[in-house]
Amino acid sequence: MKExxxxxxxxxxxxEPVPHTPIWLMRQAGRYLPEYNATRERAGSxxxxxxxxALACExxxxxxxxxxxxxxxxxxxILTIPxxxxxxxxxxxxxxxxxxxxxxxxQAIARLGAPDPGAELRYVLDAVRxxxxxxxxxxxxxxxxxxxxxxxxxxxEGAGSDDFRTLKTMLYARPDLLHRILEVNARAVTxxxxxxxxxGAQVAxxxxxxxxxxxxxxxxxxxxxxxxxxxxxxxxxxxxxxxxVILFTKGGGGWLESMARxxxxxxxxxxxxxxxxxxxxxxxRVALQGNLDPAVLLAPPQVARREARRVxxxxxxxSGHVFNLGHGITPAASIDTVQAVVDEVRTYSAKRRxxxxxxx
Amino acid sequence: MKExxxxxxxxxxxxEPVPHTPIWLMRQAGRYLPEYNATRERAGSxxxxxxxxALACExxxxxxxxxxxxxxxxxxxILTIPxxxxxxxxxxxxxxxxxxxxxxxxQAIARLGAPDPGAELRYVLDAVRxxxxxxxxxxxxxxxxxxxxxxxxxxxEGAGSDDFRTLKTMLYARPDLLHRILEVNARAVTxxxxxxxxxGAQVAxxxxxxxxxxxxxxxxxxxxxxxxxxxxxxxxxxxxxxxxVILFTKGGGGWLESMARxxxxxxxxxxxxxxxxxxxxxxxRVALQGNLDPAVLLAPPQVARREARRVxxxxxxxSGHVFNLGHGITPAASIDTVQAVVDEVRTYSAKRRxxxxxxx
Lengths: 360, 360
Fold this sequence. Notes:
homodimer, alpha/beta, two-stranded antiparallel ribbon, 16 helices, 11 strands, globular
């Protein structure tokens, strides 16, 4: 493997001084890019795109060709694990993901097993290897998975939902069944992320998209406990470098203190949380990643530059910040505005730093 | 007006000692009740039900006939104000509210004016008067309105949304236009709530359903600033008693400290926020209302009793707590479980209290 030329992301995640605040964008390879839409068209479907390593590699690299981003994130989907478990992932146009065979009865739950990533998820590992080769050390590659709880939400509900009524009914009426699913998911996510790391992922991110639908005590019991178990089982050193782990719970702004003690290196912060407050809460325990409102990318470039500076100022001086959106980029995002944000983060954060890297 | 027989809600909102924790449920008059569905059927539509004072009064009282709740809340909709402004409120089956003429151009925004509640919203005031007569002092009546920001979300977007893309584009690209709408809305909400108070509402609640889609600084500028303006303009004394104001921002758990300084008497707390933490943040500034996960009402009664005790224990001893859900009741709620929660809150909270009302 070639040596890493831009390691600002890894250094920021380790809370070491960096010349500028590194930036990448959740779902940076996505529908706002015409070249992405063209490749997806060629693939025939979203799933075919995700399951064809050469095409997944192609779209992973597309945003890096346009913008000087400090990381690549593997193009994939958070639902590859339940798909590999046999639940039958489908994407219905305009509706989001859906499972043909959601987990609804005790026998199916008893039968549930963690897939072997080297077999059923091999296409993901092949994509990781292909992206690493293509990156040739320019920036680090982030691998990822859905959290055990977020996977369970989709697996039980069968699709996204406003209230996750089926999942919540199980949670309150038959918590034993949900815990059984979560145990299997925790093993599956651990194996999956370790396989990505062994294939070349240099950072591991856990997306807990639905953890925010829980109560405070429910979050501890049904989401964080299993994320903690995953993180404890991850390979944290590879190719002679630490492999940092980022945990992102959308709507988790109220639980940052306990999240910061789960063993991760950084927390993803959604846009409703004030970064100044978040930093006070987590102290120097973890780095923070976030948290521009994705809707800012619908505004003119000058407005977005101002909002990007506001995020940088809210984090304040010192190391430990990775700039990102507070949630995934939307298809309606303006490419010019994305360009302006990436540029502003780079120049403004570099300008604010003193020549000597002795940031407090 | 008859004297109030059960004033536990008003006393809890004033953080005075009460013999038991008062309880009411957001959307307690709703689709989980067969008698509600029967009345709605008779009315022909949701809007006809809301606009016919006799029927609105009937459904307002229905939950009180089943459960020993400590308050009535007027049956109405948060979108009556924009409807009275001429935007054309419609309810499409299975889709939620929709406006025929959303606010999309500068001229329409310039023309926007606050309605006269005594004229265009008279049906609401008539319903308030009718409910007060029918209640005959049993429990207090809560009046309500959407917050200026939440109304603006619907008015600009035209309907509910996952990302409120149109609203957010205006917010970032043309904040002047949004501020103009919010100013009109703040006047309209103030007039509307004052008219409800004069008609007999004994508590005023502001529902900021969509405030949680803002960033921390955006919440201050676009939502809280206008809620504060409304609250400053409210009549806070009527029939010789204080009229308390409750502000509820769904997803506002990160902003409780500033919310507690907005002039309200109580904050509604959604179920993702831990009540112990919330109480620490607001100190003795305001009472707290909440925050059972509405999905608990899908579970068996015994489970719901345990979860209700968990909420009471999280608040802890002392006055200033109004039990409620963390969001509106869902149509799938089990009536037996609602009954169990109401019973558990009453008996468990009474048992925990010492005979002398010297709660710390």
